[in-house]
């Protein structure tokens, strides 16, 4: 039977068919739906881990115990996961072990555009790269076979377009993959220096064996078209773009095993053509390899290191055919800058922080949008969990007076991911920073995944709920306050009081995400004849509030009746109607 599946759903299906038993991940676009689809298969234990490092360690442990296992993350999550991954390259596996990483060319939902292929090279691990949903499923299954055959973890690399596009997938039955026998083997799994030295020898031999496998693998396919003078070497999504742009005017070498690369196959292909183009998004990994082989290939001199490619870009670079620029689509569409949803609990927090003129060390989440006008509150955003540590550094650099006008903001899920250690650093090293934990009762930015603070597992089962107040106090913070950011006057008072302290403090800004099913705001807000047109409500940046004919207007189709604007209006000119 065939079914139309997203690339991410196809990976999940591949894991099911391969007999995978354990999957641990942290949500991150564009990889999130892999694990969300895994939940549909009751035979697989699935979980959201607090962060990617923990997810990798869970999967590695399951592999050592004899189960086929997998961990999934986005490209920046691989940075968090890197420590155990590099060591797992030395230990090897028992049950097959696959790390699924989804890159984000174009930075649709990411803070950088890094290329995960570098990790495969640095960690000396094989990496497969599918180009459609069918290959997503088949490559996933093959990755587990390669893992067990060569005693190695395997990377499966996706990208935004592969993860989120759909194509037909052939569905098959699940393999009856029994647990591999578990045997005590400290020489293989205890990476003390004396053992690691010996295991490095195995890693290098494995790479030689994998290179030979790559040369003969059907993962790397040459498509030779008659009477062509141009060859194209590509992989993943660029294979699809190149086919759409160039058709049978060129021949192709499609690389499915991106590391180690098949040197002889590449050389044999390149020698057949007068011109050879290497088409790959982001960094010149294949191109650099080709040039190291002495091949005269054309790559980044005509293609950019930046963003996603398009068929028209490829057609212009290879065939010299410019896209038709005369095509118009009628009226120019208005810009739609990203904005927090109507009713977002973070809006009240950033309104107060902007009003008080505070320096705000930000973090990764929906609340990163606090940097956008008109809230314009967030001064910096680096990576998951960095808000607290960075604020501590700013405080130590500039002293107590600066610190009284400084706060860090971090979501509840992000705090569990990597904020706890930053808070303990402040306490241990006698810092005086104020940390605001934005507790919206869910992992919001990736589509409402549960986390250790919600009290539910990935399957919706009730579990122990981390108490943020008790956790903060256990770390040594004596001043912990829970406040509602929609009660703007009280929230402002709390922020002023806590930032004046000369010791660490935590404010838990507690209000659930407006999009949660259990949140039932009623009615909508309206402007009354008391309005003085002061436009104070416009400072909230709510998408339901706009200006029309120089008058403030509330769009009742967007307003969900959260009531924040009612609390902000100084003249009581906004009321709520059921």
Give keywords.
six-stranded parallel sheet, 4 domains, Rossmann fold, 18% strand, alpha/beta
Structural summary, described in words:
- The chain has 578 residues and is an alpha/beta fold.
- The chain is built from 20 helices and 23 strands.
- Helix 1 (7-17) packs across helix 2 and helix 1 (7-17) packs across helix 6.
Low-confidence stretches: none
Largest sheet: 7 strands, mixed
Helix-strand category: alpha/beta
Q: What portion of the residues fall into strands of 2 or more residues?
A: 15-25%
Summed over residues and divided by their number, the pLDDT gives a mean of 95
Return the domain count.
Answer: 4
Could you give the topology of this structure?
Layout: E1 2-6, H1 7-17, E2 22-25, H2 32-38, E3 45-48, H3 52-64, E4 69-74, H4 75-91, E5 97-103, H5 117-123, E6 127-128, H6 133-150, E7 154-159, H7 160-164, E8 166-170, H8 186-189, H9 193-216, E9 221-223, E10 230-234, H10 237-246, E11 251-254, E12 257-259, H11 263-270, E13 275-279, H12 285-292, H13 311-319, H14 346-356, E14 359-362, E15 378-381, H15 386-398, H16 400-403, E16 406-411, H17 412-428, E17 434-439, H18 468-474, E18 479-483, H19 488-499, E19 505-510, E20 524-527, E21 545-548, E22 551-554, H20 564-568, E23 574-577
Parallel strand pairs: 2-3, 2-4, 4-5, 5-7, 6-7, 10-11, 10-13, 14-15, 14-16, 16-17, 17-19, 18-19
Antiparallel strand pairs: 1-8, 6-12, 9-11, 20-23, 21-22
Helix pairs in contact: 1-2, 1-6, 3-4, 10-13, 14-19, 15-17
């Amino acid at each position: 039977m065939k079914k139309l599946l997203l690339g991410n759903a196809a990976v999940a299906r591949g894991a099911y068919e391969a007999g995978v038993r354990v999957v641990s991940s942290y949500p991150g676009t564009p990889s999130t739906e892999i694990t969300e689809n895994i939940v549909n298969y009751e035979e697989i234990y699935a979980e959201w881990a607090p962060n990617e490092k923990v997810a990798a360690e869970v999967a590695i442990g399951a592999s050592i115990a004899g189960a086929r296992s997998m961990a999934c993350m986005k490209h920046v999550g691989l940075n968090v996961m890197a420590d155990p991954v590099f060591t797992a390259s030395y230990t090897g596996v028992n049950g097959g072990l696959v790390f699924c990483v989804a890159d984000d060319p174009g930075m649709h939902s990411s803070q950088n555009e890094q290329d995960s292929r570098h990790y495969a090279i640095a960690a000396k691990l094989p990496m497969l790269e599918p180009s459609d949903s069918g290959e997503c499923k088949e490559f996933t299954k093959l990755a587990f076979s390669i893992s067990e055959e060569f005693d190695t973890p395997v990377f499966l690399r996706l990208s935004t377009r592969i993860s989120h596009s759909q194509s037909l997938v052939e569905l098959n039955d699940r393999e009856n993959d029994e647990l591999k026998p578990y045997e005590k083997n400290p020489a293989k799994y205890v990476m003390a220096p004396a053992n690691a030295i010996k295991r490095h020898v195995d890693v290098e031999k494995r790479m030689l064996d994998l290179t030979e496998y790559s040369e003969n693998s059907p993962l790397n396919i040459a498509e030779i078209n008659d009477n062509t003078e141009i060859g194209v070497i590509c992989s993943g999504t660029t294979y699809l773009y190149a086919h759409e742009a160039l058709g049978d005017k060129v021949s192709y070498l499609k690389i499915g095993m991106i590391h180690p690369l098949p040197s002889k196959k590449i050389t044999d292909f390149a020698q057949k053509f007068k011109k050879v183009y290497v088409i790959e998004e982001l960094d010149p990994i294949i191109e650099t390899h080709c040039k190291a082989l002495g091949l005269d290939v054309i790559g980044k001199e005509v293609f950019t290191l930046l963003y996603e490619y398009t068929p028209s870009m490829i057609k212009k670079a290879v065939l010299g055919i410019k896209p038709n620029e005369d095509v118009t689509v009628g009226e120019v569409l208005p810009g739609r800058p990203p904005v927090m949803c109507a009713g977002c609990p973070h809006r009240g927090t950033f309104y107060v922080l902007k009003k008080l003129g505070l320096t705000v060390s930000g973090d990764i989440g929906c609340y990163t949008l606090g940097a956008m006008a008109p809230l314009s509150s967030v001064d910096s955003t680096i990576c998951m969990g960095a808000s607290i540590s960075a604020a501590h550094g700013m405080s130590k650099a500039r002293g107590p007076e600066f610190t009284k006008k400084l706060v860090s903001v971090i979501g509840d899920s992000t705090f569990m991911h990597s904020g706890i250690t930053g808070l303990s650093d402040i306490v241990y090293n006698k810092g005086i920073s104020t940390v605001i934990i934005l507790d919206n009762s869910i992992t919001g930015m990736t589509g409402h995944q549960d986390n250790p603070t919600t009290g539910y597992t990935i399957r919706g089962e009730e579990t122990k709920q981390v108490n943020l107040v008790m956790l903060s106090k256990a770390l040594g913070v004596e001043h912990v306050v829970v406040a509602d950011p929609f009660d703007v006057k009280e929230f402002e008072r709390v922020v002023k009081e806590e930032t004046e302290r000369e010791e660490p403090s935590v404010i838990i800004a507690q209000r659930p995400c407006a999009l949660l099913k259990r949140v039932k705001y009623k009615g909508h807000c309206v402007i009354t004849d008391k309005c003085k047109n002061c436009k104070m409500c416009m400072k909230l940046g709510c998408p339901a509030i706009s200006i029309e004919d120089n008058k403030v207007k509330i769009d009742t189709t967007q307003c969900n009746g959260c009531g924040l604007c009612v609390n902000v209006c100084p003249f009581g000119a906004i009321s709520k109607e059921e």
